[in-house]
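I'll show an entry:

:::
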Amino acid sequence: MSKVRRIDQDHTRFRKIVRGQIKQHLKQFISSGELIGKQGEKYVSIPMPQIALPKFRFGDNQKNGVGQGEGANGEPVPGQQGPGSGAAGETEGKHTLEVDVSLADLAKILGEELELPNIEPRGRKNLRASAGRFTGISRSGPQSLRHFRRTFIEALKRQIASGTYDKDNPIILPVREDMRYRSEKPREVPQASAAIIYMMDVSGSMGREQKEMVRIQAFWIDTWLRQQYQNIEVCYIVHDAAAHIVDQHTFFHLRESGGTKISSAYELCQQQIRDKYPAGEWNVYPFHFSDGDNWSSRDTERCIELLKSSILPDVNQFCYGQVKSSYGSGQFKKDLDAVFRSDPKVITSDILDRDGILTSIKAFLGGGR
């Protein structure tokens, strides 16, 4: 038992070291995007080059022991080859240790570092779930769950009804039909659900680097929201002059060469909320990423109209991230800020480069909505 406790202590100590390393280098992990390719269902592999590996320390050994015996310095042991060819290097090697960290722990670290408040769900969705306690009674079940009192009462009632009960010799003998067992009683449990709707401009002005920045930010947004809600669905919408629902891989790798009509994405977003994610049951989070180019001011007016009349009343908040591009004008964010500057439901951010991802995440998630 002492060895087991020592292992547990060592494991806890190691986890604290890893946690400290992640917090210290969080901005580096986020901006590199290296974690995304190492993501599993519940864990992510994180490279830890800063953790020093254990090393042997050699000193003078005045007594005979291991290594003392026949043979000269540098002579190979039996069965091994002799000295290798080539000059020896003098620089120290770099050791990279990959550590599996749960996505839940990663979300906690992100929340602590960015001081993100927990979200208070606004929607509810009734899902069938176990009550977690054996509050029901069943006529069948394992003997380990037999309810003695209920079984005794049923046997007593049967013997009294049949006239076989003798008060001078009150022996109660249950038969199979008297047996009663504890059972789980399912009930409707309110469970908070969230829908994330990602929208991205995939026109010719959005290059590979811009999409990679969106991909990194979406990974961390997902990681945080999945720890706030038990049930999450994600919808991906791409748009140039027209909008389409796609899968995750297509969302981050599709590139078109057409123009940009942002209202097409907002109309599709509105349709998804109305048909699949009603506000009474879902906490809805639309995120839109673009370089700020829209084909006309008239379409921007249409976007603002859709936000005011249809989208904002049914969502927790709406987030717009403007990724810097060599070809984008950046005008769309200015138009949104001019109209919704005082609306707490509308959050906008500039993502000038990868170093700006962390600031954008804090802006999007810092309100706790």
Remarks:
- The first strand starts at residue 43 and ends at 48.
